[in-house]
Amino acid sequence: MARLVMKFGGTSVGTVERIKNVARKVKREVDAGHEVAVVVSAMAGDTNRLVDLVSDISSLHDAREYDVVVSSGEQVSVGLLSLALQDLGISARSWLGWQVPVNTNAVHSAARIENIDCSEIIKRFADNQVAVCAGFQGVGTDNRITTLGRGGSDTSAVALAAALEADRCDIYTDVDGIYTADPRIATKAAKLDKITYEEMLELASLGAKVLQTRSVEMAMKHRVKLQVLSSFEDLPGTLVVDEEDIVEHQVVSGVTYTRDEAKVTLQQVADRPGVAALVFGALADANVNVDMIVQNVSEDGQATDLTFTVGQKEINQAMDVLEKLKGEVACKAIVPDSNVVKVSIVGMGMRSHAGVAKTMFAALAEKGINIQVISTSEIKVSVLLAEEYTELAVRTLHTAFGLDAA
Ligand code: ADP
Ligand code: ASP
Ligand code: MG
Predict the structure, then answer these.
(1) What is residue 301's predicted lDDT score, i.e. its pLDDT?
(2) First to last CA, the chain
(3) Whose CA is nearest to atom 6 of ligand 2?
(4) What would the DSSP string read from start to end of 165-195?
(5) Where are the transmembrane segments (predicted)?
(6) In this predicted structure, what is the pLDDT of residue 84?
(7) By three-state DSSP, how is residue 241 classified?
(8) Which of 193, 209, 269, 352 gives a 20 to 30 Å CA spacing to 108?
């Protein structure tokens, strides 16, 4: 007998027929004698619809009320799945975030789970009852409903698996595993049997939305056995594992992209000590996160361009901060550009291989793609490109690093 957490995403519970399909999958595990907690997302499209309702009603929305509205999609799906399970003769009960409870901090719309008290759920396992838990939601220290950020049901599932000391956390979704690139844009993407926590963490934080970044962080910390697999086909999925569990590391395991960043260039800023500290200090004070940074040395050594990226959603706020500094840094112009994409390659093998960046830059150059900003870390290289090159760049790099499926 094992203890399992099974998580189903929006597409997997998108229709009544699909919810019945999920119920059959859960029944199979119950019939095999396992203790099962299920975590579900809202039905496909529901959360987007709820987010739109909030924006339509008020541009200055209050994050506490946003959470009340957008968390409601999951209330529908837990109720429906519990009914579908009962229909198959399985004892099942729905649990909203506050009922478990899933305790979070009070950062509404992007809350972090602090602890989960699953004693009642465990008690009911003894009576063969399945717990059907709402993903995405918790209860804050202010005693109000919170949500965990978009894609947060993955984190709900992993956190519950950690709290329950589950034998496995299976993330059922609309693809049959983790691929070397988003299969929706890279037609030659190949399914991975295994990937390390470290690589998946980089891929997720660099844009691969198959798992929410925080869920991978949490799985890594609590050593949760995580698998991503299909809701629709009975196929083995991808296991997220420790570094030691992979014998031979690929130089590059995956290519990913995000359109969530925007670029800002301060043209001809004074080339003197303290300018960078001033610019990035002011942005930090305004809570604007800066990601990639490049500073060019100008030919006359007098003034230089300073380019960096911030979150697409924070660009207006960043521009307000920078306009105020314009005189002090004596720059000629401040130029924002939202028409950019960050494309990244990720792989553990990069640590011991030279020439990875060179291969990346050469492959992009061959297609005439200009690189605007570069950033690297131990197991990744990211480049900022004009947005129209997204698909071409992902496919080109996928081929250049030998990832194309046979
Ligand atoms: P769910 O609703 O089940 O949580 P998501 O839409 O959040 O599903 O995540 C699954 C999607 O992630 C896939 O449909 C796929 O387009 C996308 N994706 C992005 N990168 C990858 C990748 N490297 N491997 C697999 N899927 C990926
Ligand atoms: N329903 C939420 C969302 O769409 C949470 C999730 O699906 O993981 O972001
Ligand atoms: Mg998701």
Answers:
(1) 64
(2) 38
(3) 151
(4) T-SEEEEEESSSS-BSS-TTT-TT--B-SEE
(5) none
(6) 98
(7) strand
(8) 209
